[in-house]
Amino acid sequence: ATTTTTAAAAAPTTTAPVPAGTAVRPADAEARKRRGEFVRGESTMRSYIVDCDAENIDPSSVEFPAEAGRYHLYCSYNCPWSHRCLLARSVLGLDDIVSADIVYYRRDDEHGWWQFRPDLDPSTDADSVNNFRFVKQLYEKDGNDKEKSVPVLYDKRLKKIVNNESAEIVRILNTAFRSILRRRRGDGGGVDLLPDEHYSHVEYFNAWTYTMINNGAYRAGFSSSQQAHAEAAARYFDALDRLQLLFATRRFVCGARVTEADLRLFPTIVRHDAVYYVRFRLTKRRIRDYAHVQRWLRDMWHNVPGVAAATNLVHAKR
Question: Is 218 a catalytic residue?
Fold first, then answer.
């Protein structure tokens, strides 16, 4: 995911649903690394799938037109960036429109590459499209010898990577297949994770969530100095305090309905007690100590169709 920063927001209100907090100020990546901070790289393969019906475009004129059964996700349950894509696929009802393979939760010892090893755990998959052993081979086939990450959104017909930026994949899943869903369902196309009336709220909250929560946990967990860890952990728990205030007044991030902002927040919050509390040494509090955040988490798990099915904490803890 691409590093995003945002200025401190106002306290939670109906018109500005982003909690206040101290955002991370931009700084030179190498200087931050020297201070022991974790600096996330950027994804580089950033094409889009087009809903040609909605745009009134000839499908033959675009490289990646929306088609049922043509596209495929390579994801890992234990990768939170992959998890948000699996959540979107499941909540949107795209399981039979966009296929998926779940990679093994441990990378290979020699290279540190994501691998397909159903022989080691049958709850993971072989590569059903290319029969590769490693995710990196997908990139090499596409002429990219630098990247090796998941998630990957893949075109099975052209045998090309469409996109490997998780935030953009979530947005693609929400928009590209709406006409297909509308024809199948005979209605408005089902769930919309980015309704027009909440667009600015979702965009603002996503930027805050990425900096303070999603990447905030990693900035603590992968820091290489005690000072960097302490600073990152303080920002992270300040953000959880702000979430507690937010969910004291609303069911979901933007009010009464689930949006993309909830799906992007969920992977970190659901992992905190089970994984990050110990592994990232984020031990100041557990989510169960935040009553309103825990209520939101349980609501997402039990009452939002598709969330539990797209979540595997057994993989996340390994």
Answer: yes
